[in-house]
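Dear support,

I submitted the protein below through the web form. The confirmation email said the job was done, but the results page showed an empty box. After a refresh the structure appeared. I'm attaching both so you can tell me whether what I see now is the final result or a partial one.
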Amino acid sequence: MPTIFSKIIAGEIPCHKVWEDDAHFAFLDINPWVEGHTLVIPKAEHDYLFDMDDDSYTALHLAAKTVANLLKDKLGCARVCTTVIGYEVPHVHIHLLPTNQMSDFAKPGTFGMKEKPDLVALAKRITS
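What the results page shows now:
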């Protein structure tokens, strides 16, 4: 059965895409921890990051680096933090979190913005 992320890639579920190449897809998280919270995923379904073959693993991280640089440039943040949790969706994904200081990165268990940004406007800002 396809994952929710495979359905997003296929266009069956809408998203706010910010970047894509032949093998990867990046879109804004609908429940962001910080403004610009982006998920980078492989288009091929992989359930667990460390089960990926070396080439796919490396390519995913290079894709995440590309998207992190895009976020840093377009959002003007100091750093883009990253995390991989691996339980939320059975499809490997890297969380990219634009930040300006350590306190911007929420402590585990406190994730989520109180006021969500306008994802349409934010996606346009990143992709412009």
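Response: this is the final, complete result; the empty box was a page-load delay. The beta strands are 17-20, 24-28, 38-42, 79-83, 94-99.
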